[in-house]
Amino acid sequence: MSExxxxxxxxxxxxxxxxxxxIPGMPNGKPANTRCIQLDAxxxxxxxxxxxxxxxxxxxxxxxxxxxxxxxxxxxRVHAMRFLSTLETQTSQDVTSN
Length: 98
Ligand code: SF4
Fold this sequence. Notes:
Layout: H1 55-59, H2 64-67, H3 73-96
């Protein structure tokens, strides 16, 4: 089975996870569950392809596990938000428990 491609209009991975790298307009990165300032009204990255885009953004790839396999963008977005929020909680607990 092939991996899914990123669904236009989703934007879940630009909202749910925290990002510690600087982002233009967000010099300290962004907290979890916060919309990236570079995400436009159509949920597209305004600095896609720009060297200032954090590496973590380009390293994140769409997958069925993360993005789901639902029919509509909205269902897929809900799945991805839940998955990424759970991952964020698990990884932040790992950091604080060390
Ligand atoms: S920089 Fe672009 S890809 Fe990265 S979180 Fe912000 S909008 Fe998304």
